[in-house]
Specification:
Order of helices and strands: HHHHEEEEHHHH
Strand order of the largest sheet: 1-4
Distance between the termini: 89 Å
CATH architecture of the largest domain: Up-down Bundle
Oligomer: single chain
Largest sheet: 2 strands, antiparallel
Radius of gyration: 43 Å
Number of helices: 8
Length: 293
């Protein structure tokens, strides 16, 4: 068959391969790419945290609150700027006047009258500029208040980020734990099923009693109940994963240790927490002090 296949191939230089061969090549390449990409489809804890940081509705709501607080600063600063107002008006007016003047001797011996009739277009344009020179530091106090509200909103966002990311890391590990526990319980049920089968065979051979069979059945029933509980727990954990991360939990890769990122000494950890944690009193004091400088 091989020589015939070689004779069927094009012999002339520059001749294009048939369309079926091109389609087969593309299919094989796509299958190879998908086969190579499938092992890398496992989601890491870094990707899960990134999804939670971008998709969590609580964080998105708090980000909107921060943007709203940011808009208060330029509104407060507008008190330093002049106020300009302008107005313009235009209209259409019809006039029809008839006036009678009685005689007034000796200048006007006879009566007289005159009339005016026609359309007119009155117009007016005006502008007003005002600048506040002093208002008892009201504008400065409004600016400081707006800046303090921005700082508070941003620190609240940091607190929520820590809470959401901690919840995301926790639920990620819970998925791994509950999945492993479910596998253990499934394996336990399979072992007890084989044990029950062996016990029944031994009972049929007269080597054990009814009590042994009943004990094996009770152990299997307890293992099945534990298995159902593990399935329920994993289902709940997956629902919480979707609530926090924003997507369904797929194939999760094992998480790496974070001890390398933590300070090596307890005093260094306390100092870092006091300086960086948004809930710490020292950090709040520094933020407030920097706002009033």
């Amino acid at each position: 068959m091989a020589p015939r296949a070689r004779r069927d191939l094009p012999q002339r230089r520059g001749q294009q391969p048939p369309a079926a061969a091109v389609l087969l090549t593309i299919t094989l390449v796509a299958a190879t790419v998908l086969g190579l990409a499938s092992p890398a489809a496992a989601e890491t804890i870094e990707q899960a945290l990134a999804r939670a940081y971008a998709n969590n509705p609580q964080l998105n709501a708090q980000r909107a609150i921060v943007r709203q607080a940011d808009e208060g600063v330029p509104q407060a600063l507008s008190g330093y700027r002049p106020n300009v107002s302008a107005n313009a008006s235009v209209g259409r007016e019809y006039t029809d006047i008839k006036q009678f003047i009685p005689p007034t001797p000796p200048l006007l011996t006879n009566s007289a009258s005159f009339a005016a009739k026609g359309l007119s277009t009155p117009r007016s344009v005006g502008a007003t500029v005002s600048q506040t020179l002093f208002n008892g530091q009201q504008t400065a106090n409004r600016v400081r208040t707006a800046e303090s509200q921005v700082a508070m909103a941003r620190e609240t966002l940091r607190v929520m980020e820590q809470s959401v990311l901690l919840a995301a890391a926790t639920i990620y590990m819970d998925i791994s734990r509950d999945s492993a526990n479910l596998e253990v319980q499934q394996n336990n049920v399979r072992v007890l099923q084989r044990t029950l089968t062996d016990t029944r065979n031994r009972f049929a051979a007269g080597q054990v009693t009814d009590t042994d069979v009943a004990q094996s059945e009770a152990q299997l029933a307890a293992a099945e109940a534990t298995l159902h509980g593990a399935e329920s727990t994993l289902t709940t954990t997956r629902a919480n994963y979707r609530c926090i991360i924003g997507v369904d939990a797929g194939n999760l890769s094992p998480a790496s240790s974070v001890e390398r990122m933590a300070p090596s000494m307890l005093p260094a950890a306390i100092a870092a927490g006091a300086a960086e944690n948004p809930s710490s009193a020292l950090h709040c004091f520094r933020s407030s002090f920097s706002d009033f400088r």
